[in-house]
Amino acid sequence: VQLQASGGGLVHAGGSLKLSCAASARTFVNLVLGWFRQAPGKEREFVAAIAQSGQPTVYADSVKGRFTISRDSANTVSLQMNSLNPGDTAVYYCAARIGLLLETQTHTKYYRYMGQGTLVTVSS
Prior knowledge:
Structural class: mainly beta
């Protein structure tokens, strides 16, 4: 599975951005798509994920109520980010795995595929 993310950029605190990711694969069966992010000097952390059917969705506590992940098609996913703050500044990575989506699977080890990142910068 190859993943191509887009939509990063610079935004002021309180603003919004939408990230998109397209997956290319031979088949799309139980393809979970998600997002991770990595801030400078920090470990990569889970942001959100969505099952192939669109449900369930899982969010990190830090983004609940502000970010919305959606499945636009079998192979595309979007992340709508609202009320952004400087703490959201990071490189955002699209990720994929084959299987079910469980709330406990929020570590990078559960995602076999990781795309190139897109930078999101939130200025204060």
